[in-house]
Structure formats: structure tokens, C-alpha cells
Amino acid sequence: MTTAFVLTGGGSLGAVQVGMMAALQEQGVTPDVLVGTSVGAVNAAYLAGPGTSDGRLESLSRLWNRMRRRDVFAPHPQRWVGAVLGAAPSLFTEDPLRRLLQDNLGYAELEHARLEVHVTAADLVTGEAAILSAGPVVTAVLASAAVPGLLPAVTRDGRTLVDGAVGDVDALRHADACGVDEMYLLPAGYPCAGPAPVSAAGTALTSLSLVLHHQLLHQVREYRGRAALHVVPPLCPLVVSPADFSHAASLQNRARHATRGWLTQSASHAAEPDATALALHHHAGWDRPPQTAWAQSPQTEGPQSPHTGDPGAHLSTLKGLTA
């Protein structure tokens, strides 16, 4: 039995995927193939690096815990002015993320990774999918994570590439084509509760997350591949902005706890894939939840859904919102 993990985008909410993978690993579910988009490409490329899956996941968790916004989006007022005047291609430079990748991935070429890894991007000219499976790993991940307007596009093999969530990229279909027996979709989620974002980065990343979830909902519903597809429910409700990197520890803990609950529910992870958890929705009465409720110590899971303490019980509430 071979298994693929499909990791989606979501900015700082990529920490959620680390908790999901930790819970899956506890049950002996580990990947043979990794397919990543945007921050999911960062996680996939890191996990595929040298060492063991256990060791890489533990060190990835530590990396997330010490990561801050400046490690990806470093303030640069002069560049901001240049971007407004048309003299710079993006509000932020890719240099901090490039350094982060170069210092931590531990290998140079995708084909030299310990695990089979594929990174998705989108052609900014045609909108077509670009599946990167060979060549320099750093530029591949930079291309997959190049949120238009925030980070610069990457030129690779004569194509101008941006974040894989932008174009016509079906990561599920590609993972199935790799010949695996099972696939686990690990969505980073999006802030479905709380106030609207106020920063440019938060607005761009949240908007892209909404687009991505709409695409995922369609792709899961239309999936007819050979491999069995399991959709790990994203955290819900969630108020953390995709541009806020200060909650990685609590996000990992919540995701680990929620995924454990999903795995232990009677055969939930062996059933037909349920796209309900990916539906765009809101939470009545959660328009302005206290941010501090989600910023507990690393040992605190954070509050559950207002509907119930069951981490997966919000699904029944959302069914009416998916039509």
C-alpha cells in the first residue's frame, strides 16, 4: 500500500498540516508521495528531506514554532513605494523565504529528495498548471508560494510561475496519477470566524485561501480516481489570519487533537470522501471572537466549535451551506 499526502496552501495556517501529519503518523499513516501547493509545498519539500519521516516532522514542528512573519514577509517601505509606482514586481522580496528554504531543506534538487515530492505552481500567462518534480527545489517552492502582488513571480524553464492556488491545478488528479493506493488531503483551512482581515498581506492570503477552498470543494466532489481519497477536516472555527505566524504551536496542537478525533470516529477516514468540511461558511455569533482565546499556551488545544466539543461535529451544521 502506497500513500500520498496532498498539502494545500494557506499562509501561516500551514502549521495546521504539521499537527494533522503528527496525528496520522501516530496511527502509522506516513507518505510515500508528497504533493504540495504554496505553503503546502514548503511543508512537503521539508518533509521529503534527508533523515527519517519522524525526525523531519519533529524538526518541521520546531521550525514552525520559531517562524515569524518577517521570515517570509519582511517589511521594506522603499519597496512598497516602488510597487505602487510600478518599479517593483511585488510588495515583498523573496529573499527571506529563499534563505529559510536554503538553510533548512537539506537538499538541492527535487529528484534527490528522500521521498517522491511534487510541487504545483501556475503559469501566470496561461493559467495552466505547472507540476514541478525535478530541478532546483528552492526555486520550485518559491514559485509555488509566489502569492501574486505579495511575492515576485519566478521564471523557470521559460515560464513565469506563481502560487499554485491561482491556476487550473488539480493536485488530487496528479497525486492519483502517481499510482498510489491512498491519498490524504490535508487542507490548511481558512479563517471562517472572526473579523475580516485588515492588512494587505492578510487580505491577499485570506482571499487566496477562499479561492483555494472553492476549488478543493469542486475537485473532491468530482474526484473519480483509483486511489482512495480521505479528506482530513480543517480546523473549524478558526480566527487566525493566514498572515499571522505567532500561533503555530497552538494550531499544531489543535490540529493534532482534531485529527485524532476524526481518525477514531467509526470508520470516518475509510468512508467516501466528504467535501462538506471544505465548504465556505460563516459562524453566527462568532463575528468578533476574542483573539486571546486562540492564543493559548502550546499545551492548550483552544476552544472547540460553539456547536459541540466534537472536533468533527461542525460538519452537520455546514451541510446546508454546501448546495
Walk me through this protein's architecture.
A hairpin with a 5-residue loop joins strand 3 (116-123) and strand 4. Helix 1 (15-26) packs antiparallel against helix 3 (53-66), helix 1 runs parallel beside helix 9 (248-264) and helix 5 (95-104) packs across helix 6 (137-144). It is globular, with a radius of gyration of 18 Å. The model is unreliable at 287-323 (pLDDT under 50). 35% of the residues lie in helices and 12% in strands. Strands 1, 2, 3, 4, 5, 6, 7 and 8 form an eight-stranded mixed β-sheet that branches. The protein has ten helices and eight strands. With 323 residues, the chain is α/β, with parallel strands linked by helices. It has helices at residues 15-26, 39-47, 53-66, 77-85, 95-104, 137-144, 171-177, 200-222, 248-264, 314-318, and strands spanning 3-7, 33-37, 116-123, 129-132, 154-156, 159-163, 182-186, 228-231.
What fraction strand? 5-15%
Q: Tell me the helix content.
A: 25-40%
Uncertain regions spanning at least 5 consecutive residues? 287-323
Return the average pLDDT rounded to an integer.
Answer: 85
Assign an overall shape.
Answer: globular
The number of strands is: 8
Secondary-structure-based class equals: alpha/beta
Biggest sheet descriptor: 8 strands, mixed
SSE run: EHEHHHHEEHEEHEHEHH
Rg estimate, integer Å: 18 Å
- Distance N to C terminus: 35 Å
Number of helices: 10
Briefly characterize the structure.
The protein is built from ten helices and eight strands.
